């Protein structure tokens, strides 16, 4: 079996690594991939031409047809929102992910909020705006803290948690007046600030059947103590103890099942990964902060470190409408620490030599794995790896508990070096605090 993984981040490295573990897989092609997928066992990077527009997926279709690709797994959100799954299906290619209609849950905050309101899915109160003055008037009326979101895709950075009215108004100006996020910020959604603890709840869905994946918690803020600007994610761990069995049951009944039912009723059955970013209040009530139409990053890395079932088998069953309701998971805890480049999240650095990386191993029993993201092979030295983006690496470890996984990941992270490297040393602090309460 030959598989094509679309994407270039740590999530895609983790997906390719898991796919390559399956004995029935001959080769995993990754488009465009990164240094990790270039070096991984049974994997190779492929460079595809760009289509004539974001919605033109013909280069991917042609590659699949010319290279005997049996299955496509799409990592990032942008091609899903522009209809890559629809294009693959039209061409008779097996592809895992939601259609463009379903991917609007991530592609438009307004669509997602209206969908949740129509289907009684718990979420924060909100209003949408295209005019800066009207948005500011609403903020002045509501007060702070308050959340300002760019309506469209903004690579995980289009969310501002404003502590003051002044910060909120500045965010509104950035999005609506100064066009900081381009078309993604031409409309904003302003939400009530929710209190509680966050969790990531990710499922595989085949239109009818739901397979909940291991729970996890992301750390969005750039600096320790959950301070600083929002990022695409500075680390994650699994499982998330805030998701008790009671909370799990509530999420399935109040969030996930209503999505599946409503999409099917609308004539657009949801297939692929569905990510619900949640806020869990003190009473265990879940509220949806956001939907993503794909696996999270960096949550994927610790989640897939714990997956013992074959991801290829699960996707194959999902494509056949026969997804099981559970998978086999390592009982140990997993934790990933993102190592970011100079200036992230406002900017990033490229071309800096990375030293101290452990060798990419074909031994799948290892309890530490470094997943590459914004990292590339040095064009002048095939034996060297250089920075190539904001989030460069995700050092992921397995241990008997979260603090053990944290310490193991920190030990490996400390040996890795490049100019401007920075990372959080407190990933997993919520779970560790619970263990020591």
Automatic annotation (TrEMBL):
UniProt keywords, alphabetically: ATP-binding, Ligase, Magnesium, Manganese, Metal-binding, Nucleotide-binding, Purine biosynthesis
Biological or metabolic pathway of the protein: Purine metabolism; IMP biosynthesis via de novo pathway; N(1)-(5-phospho-D-ribosyl)glycinamide from 5-phospho-alpha-D-ribose 1-diphosphate: step 2/2
Any one GO MF annotation of this record: phosphoribosylamine-glycine ligase activity
Catalytic reaction equation(s): 5-phospho-beta-D-ribosylamine + glycine + ATP = N(1)-(5-phospho-beta-D-ribosyl)glycinamide + ADP + phosphate + H(+)
Domain (ATP-grasp): residue spans on this chain: 113-320
Official protein name in the record: Phosphoribosylamine--glycine ligase
Enzyme class: ligase
Gene: purD
The species this protein was found in: Psychrobacter frigidicola
